[in-house]
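Q: How would the structure tokens look for this protein?
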Amino acid sequence: MPDDFSPLLARLDAYASRWPHEAALVRTFGEFLHSDPAVFERRFLVGHFTGSAWLVSAESQRVLLMHHRKLRRWLQPGGHADGDVDLARVALREAQEETGVTGLQVDEDIFDIDRHRIPSRADEPEHWHYDLRYIVRTCEDERFAINEESHALAWRDVVDVAADASLETSLRRMASKWLAR
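A: Here is the predicted structure in token form.
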């Protein structure tokens, strides 16, 4: 395994120490990381690593969610690594591209992990996303701009996200983790 994977492995180990009930999932991520050199490329059709942003407001009470155009549900900003093994950098890039919010800062520690199936579409078979989520914070400007990735963007109170049964389980889990900090 290339040396540049060692920071990711260290962060996964630190995550498992903080969230021991997720240790089996962390092992699954580690096994996938070792499975093939192409796991950071979307062309690896079994699945691939992605980076997402838990994009919180400056006062830490709200999170910016996007109504994903392809998947048709509210999600956090994020996307494909496209060869970049620094998934915190991927999360920051995707947050900026998908929301238009400027002046963002990313925390290098993994905030959450999630493995989920992506349904087949047109020329893309069903596959796994091994998603690492990072805290990304606004500094001052919280204005956003909708682009082709989403139908809508909205700032939501984290308390409301945690309680909203209509949202994805992983969003509610991240909200609960955020509130427990």
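Residues 38-180 form a domain with the Nucleoside Triphosphate Pyrophosphohydrolase fold (CATH 3.90.79.10).

The CA atoms of residues 62 and 122 lie 35 Å apart.

Upvote if useful.
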